[in-house]
Specification:
- The complex is a heterodimer.
- Chain A is an all-beta fold.
- In chain A, a hairpin with a 6-residue loop joins strand 5 and strand 6.
- The radius of gyration of chain A is 13 Å and the shape is globular.
- The N and C termini of chain A lie far apart (32 Å).
- Helix content of chain B is 0%, strand content 57%.
- Chain B is built from no helices and 11 strands.
- In chain B, strand 4 and strand 5 form a beta hairpin.
- The chains are: A mainly beta, B mainly beta.
- Chains A and B meet through strand 4, strand 5, strand 9 and strand 10 of A and strand 4, strand 5, strand 9 and strand 10 of B.
């Protein structure tokens, strides 16, 4: 693994189903983030984690949950998917010791909820 | 809360110079970042300004004026591969979360 990986690449999901999007990084970054990107709205932060064992809510957290059991993994769960959660989801990570505040993004998961 | 404004679209020709502006309103401010995203791809980091002034990185430069809550990304010697969306983002707290603008779609014409 090099950088950040996300799985699945894409998914079509029936409304009401539970879904977990996976995110793994091998850069030992302490901070990780989940964003959703909708056309014309840019990237919006769903949840974040500044270090393993802690999580926080972003701008649009409703309907989503996260966990951070270890440094490398940061899964995002939709407990009961709704059509408005159709979006492209990006996971990102950053090194809090970096002065540039650079975030490294995964390739994204395209989710369609019908 | 935070809000950022940037133009939705910019068009320029190959070899030209283009400037993408970004104005922001935040309750606190730690820095302004720029990211590039090609269609269907992941955003990639371009620059970060925490202090006023111009930061130059090859063909790309970024400027910040904290007193004006304003910054811009300057792209010189435009190439076709520069056609992409460009996002400004503010870090408004020590926790390092970013708030992104809606993005500027840059089209480079031959």
């Amino acid at each position: 693994i090099a950088g950040i990986t996300q799985a699945p690449t894409s998914q079509i999901l029936a409304a009401g189903r539970r879904m977990t999007l996976r995110c793994t990084q091998d850069m030992r970054h302490n901070a990780m983030y989940w964003y959703r990107q909708d056309l014309g709205l840019g990237l919006r932060l769903i949840h974040y984690s500044n270090t393993a064992g802690t999580t926080g809510k972003g701008e649009v957290p409703d309907g989503y949950s996260v966990s951070r059991a270890n440094t490398d993994d940061f899964p995002l769960t939709l407990a009961s998917a709704v059509p408005s959660q159709t979006s492209v989801y990006f996971c990102a990570s950053s090194d809090s010791t970096s002065g540039s505040n650079e975030q490294f993004f995964g390739p994204g998961t395209r989710l369609t909820v019908l | 809360g935070q809000s950022l404004e940037q133009p939705s679209e910019v068009t320029a020709v190959e070899g030209a110079i283009v400037q993408i502006n970004c104005t922001y309103q935040t309750s606190g401010f730690y820095g302004l970042s720029w990211y590039q995203q090609h269609d269907g791809g992941a955003p990639t980091f371009l620059s970060y300004n925490a202090l006023d002034g111009l930061e130059e990185k090859g063909r790309f430069s970024s400027f910040l004026s904290r007193s004006d809550s304003y910054g811009y990304l300057l792209l010189q010697e435009l190439q076709m591969k520069d056609s992409a969306s460009y996002f400004c983002a503010v870090r408004d707290g020590s926790a390092r979360q970013l708030t992104f603008g809606s993005g500027t779609q840059l089209t480079v014409l031959p």
